[in-house]
Amino acid sequence: MIKNRNHGRDRSKGIEAYKETVIRQLSNPDQAKQFIQEVGYRYPRYMRDHLQIVQHMINQYRHVIDDALIQCVKEHLWSANDLRDVAHHLHRLTENEFFPPPTFQEMKRNTTVIKATVQTRELATYVEIIGGPN
């Protein structure tokens, strides 16, 4: 289905007001402002879309969004999609802290041993299949 992007955009605020709203929601306003300015410089035509993605990430990943912003500025990742990816990655890492991966001994205890026998054939059978000399 083809959709006009203008229909999904929030046009109740101007771009500058939207930028300020997003910047105020982050704990480090200097880094937030730098990030938003760089995104605006690189993607001026799609600034509103990027701001919507950042806003959604602030709401969804509140506990890691500031760390994600720091990482993006440090690595020069100037896109809302990059911020989303970093925030999602940090969120998954924090989830794994609560449920650490099992140790080798735990995995060894939890495995079931399957007794299976493998069928063996004479070498001549394989030579016949691949067409080698008799």
Give a brief description.
The chain is mostly helical and 134 residues long.
Give a written overview of the molecule.
With 134 residues, the chain is an all-alpha fold. Helix content is 62%, strand content 0%. The chain contains 7 helices and no strands. It starts with 14 loop residues before the first helix and ends with a helix.
Beta-strand proportion: under 5%
Helix content: 55-70%
Compute the gyration radius: what is it?
27 Å
- Kindly name the structural category: mainly alpha
Q: Based on DSSP secondary structure assignment, what is the total number of beta strands?
A: 0
Helix count, DSSP H or I runs of 4 or more residues: 7
What is the overall pLDDT average? 85
Q: Cα distance, first to last residue?
A: 63 Å
The dominant shape is elongated
Could you give the order of the helices and strands?
HHHHHHH
Low-pLDDT runs of 5+ residues are: none
Largest sheet: none
Primary descriptors:
mainly alpha, 7 helices, 0% strand, 134 residues
